[in-house]
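Quick one: structure tokens for this chain, please?
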Amino acid sequence: MSDVFSEVIGHERVLRRLRAMLANEAVPHAVVFHGPRHAGKATVAEALAAALLAAQDASSHPDFRRVERPRDEKTDKLKKVIPIDSVRSLQHHVRMSAFLGGAKVALIDGAEHLSEEASNALLKTLEEPTKRAYVLLTVEDLTRLPRTILSRSALMRFDRVPDAVVADALLARGTAPFEAAKLAARADGRPGLAIGFVEQGDMVNWYETEERRWRSLRAAPPHRRLLECASLAPARADREETIERLRDVLDVWQGFLRRELKAGEPSAAANLRKLSALRSSLAVNVQPRLLLEKFALTLDR
């Protein structure tokens, strides 16, 4: 079987650790992959699952189960949390005998969205692991997982991948050199975002629109900043959809600010700190519009 990690871009430190675990048959029953969105956490988790299942692709394997936030059947909108029923289904999966006589693997993608009841149920599974059963979790921010879960898991930190590594990966996929370098810089160390730029042309247009919005917001007087906030977080919009949209927008702004910081822009460091605080507050505050307005009104030009 070929190397299941061959398509992973960067993250050599993580891959060395995982390969050593696999070689020594010492993969923990629970592993938490944490780091920026679009960095490749789920890609690596699925590759590890494939290795544990002795398969080239885990997604269609009968002994693999993926859990994430479900969508509402009527509205098709993402639900706020991963419910306890999803975890109970996962528990049933890992406790059953393997269909193909090997391992059982479950992946919880976006584990920060586990409801309190679902987290408590998952903890019981981690406290009493089944032989050759593995639970893999991806999360952006470790502080959003209970300490009891973290203490029973191996932690794998995903850092941003150097632009040159991302650009080389895009070149290998047929992207022209100048375009590869430009898209890698915009992706800000997140290979998944860079690949999205290549495969979905409208993502580049959206990214450029949000860059222009950032420049306009920072240069605008207070009343114009508030109008921009209203367009990003309409008063009657669904809260979860608003937060998801804001997270995507803030990812773009963060990448732009990080490039400004490298270029020596005086206001970049302060604005990055404020943006980081806004991202953290979005996870717990029920009024994203007010958070965004506070952020916008305190921006340094």
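The first helix runs from residue 12 to 23.
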